[in-house]
Amino acid sequence: MPSDSALQQEDNAQKLSAANAKNYRSVIGLLLYLSRDRADIMFVVKELASAMSSPSLCPVPLLRKLIGFIKHTGDIGVKLPFPEHGVGKFKQGTEVFWLLETYTDADWSSNKAHRRSTSCSIHFLNGCFCFGSSRSQKVISLS
After folding, report:
1. Domain ranges for the chain
2. Range 1-35 burial, b when 16+ CB lie within 10 A, else e
3. What is the 3 state secondary structure string of the chain?
4. How far apart, in whole angstroms, are the C-alpha atoms of residue 95 and residue 81?
5. How far out from the chain centre does Cα 57 lie?
6. pLDDT on residue 30
7. Which pTM value belongs to this model?
């Protein structure tokens, strides 16, 4: 697993020094770039990136765990086969040239610190992964 449930706990830890905060931001910037191709780490990187403005000691062990996960799963990649027209992951239709499939989900405010839901989506074009996203919603859930 790239992370555990401590990822969504409230952060009351001591802030990082200026040098360590700069290093934290640099690593998160690299992970933001990498997470576009690795759908398995998108959510964790999004949560760790939310602490970039004033990083504390709380997300550092989670960042180390994520880096260890990436080291041990470094051979994972996105396979891009030659696309067949009208053939998707779960649907086949010979009447269409391009078949765009989108799958979405939300966690409905599982983060108790800020009560914002996370929406995620994965997009496939003719059965080939082309884009994935994981974003926090702006509206706070009340129920």
Report:
1. 5-72, 79-143
2. ebbeeebbeeeeeeebeeeebeebbeebeebeeeb
3. CCCCHHHHCCCCCCECCHHHHHHHHHHHHHHHHHHCCCCCCHHHHHHHHCCCCCCECCHHHHHHHHHHHHHHCCCCCCCCCCCCCCECCCCECCCCCCCEEEEEEECCCCCCCCCEEEEEEEEEECCEEEEEEEEEEEEECCC
4. 21
5. 21
6. 94
7. 0.75
The residue with tokens 């760790």 is 48
Does the CA dihedral 107-104-33-70 come out positive or negative? positive
Averaged in consecutive runs of 10 residues, what is the pLDDT profile of the chain (143 residues)?
Answer: 74 87 93 87 88 87 92 82 74 72 80 75 84 81 65
User: Two tokens at 128?
Assistant: 């080939």
Both structure tokens of 4: 């555990």
For tokens 């994935």, name the residue. Answer: 132
The gap from C-alpha 127 to its chain's centroid, in whole angstroms, comes to 21
Please identify which residue in the block is written with the tokens 């790239």. 2
